[in-house]
Amino acid sequence: MNAIVAKIEAIAENRDHNRKVAQKVGRGAYSVFRFLLLFGVGFIILYPILYMFSMAIRPGEQVYDAAVIWIPKTLTADNIIRAATEMEYGKSFFVTAGLVLMSTVLQCLSCSLVGYGFAKFKFKGRNLLFALVLFTLVVPAQTITLSLFVNYTQFDWFGIGQLGRLFGGEAWITPLLNTIWPHFIATISASGIRAGLFIYMFRSYYAGLPIELEDAAYIDGSGFFGTYLRVMWPNAGPITLVTFLLTFVWYWNDYTQSAMILNEFNLMSVEFSQLQSSLSSVLSPGSAEMTITMQAACLIYVLPILIMYIILQRKFTESIVKSGIVG
Fold this sequence. Notes:
By secondary structure, the protein is an all-alpha fold. The protein has a domain at 88-273: MetI-like fold (Orthogonal Bundle). The protein contains 14 helices and no strands. The relative contact order is 0.12.
C-alpha cells in the first residue's frame, strides 16, 4: 500500500516538474518573441533616422562605397554645415520656433474653450455646428488655399471694412500677407491647422469628466468661465499635452500655408523645400554631395522635434492613455 502511495506521489511530482518546465519554456519563448517583435518594429521606425545620420556624417566618396553600410570609415561635419548654411538654419530656426510656439499655445487655448462649450452647454444648432467642425477634418487643405490667399490679401476684418463705403470712400482693406496676423487670427478663432480634430478631442475629454466638479465650483460661487479656468482646464492636462505636441509638429511641418502667407519669414519648412533648387547652383543634381547634403538637411530639420519628443515621450505616452485616445 505504501509503495502504491509513493508511486502516485512520484508521478504527481514529476507532472508538477514537467508543468513548471513547460511554463518556463513558454515564458522564455514569449520573451524572445516579444524582443524580436519590438526590435523589428523599432528598427523599422528608427531606420530613416539612422540612415539620415549615417549619410550626413560621411564624405561624398563613401556614399557609393559597398564596404560602407552604416558606420563611415571617416567622419565629417561638412555636409551638416553646408545644409545649415544654405537653409540659414540659425535665423530660420528661431523664427520658426517662435511662430510655431505662439500658434500652438493659442490654438490649444481656443480649441480647449470651444471643446468645453460643445461638451457642457446646450444651445440651438449645437449639433449642426459640431458637424461642421467635423466636416473640416475631411476637407483637404489645398481646396481652401486660394480662398485663404484672397482673404488675407484683401482682409476687411470680418466685413467691418465694408463700412468705409458708407462714408463715400473705399473699403478699409488691410493686406495681411507676410505678417503674423494670419496665424493669430486662425489660432485664436480655433480654425488653424487640424483645429477640428483638437476640438473633437477636447469635447470628448470634457464630456467624460464628472459633473460633480462643475457642481462643486458653482456652489462655491464660480461662474461658467471661472469654472473652466479654475477647475476644468487644470484637469485637462493629459489631452492638452497631446494637443500641444501634435499641433507643434503640424505647424512645424506645414508648408502650404507657410509658403503662401509667410514666404518672406524664412521658415524652416520653406527653406527646406527650396534647398535642392538652391544647391543646384553649386552642386550637380544627383551627385553624391547633393545626396548627403539633403540627408543632412533632413536630419537637422527633424532634430528639434526628435529632441522635444525624447524629453516628453513618457508624459506624452501617459497622456494618450489617460485621455482615452487609445484603449
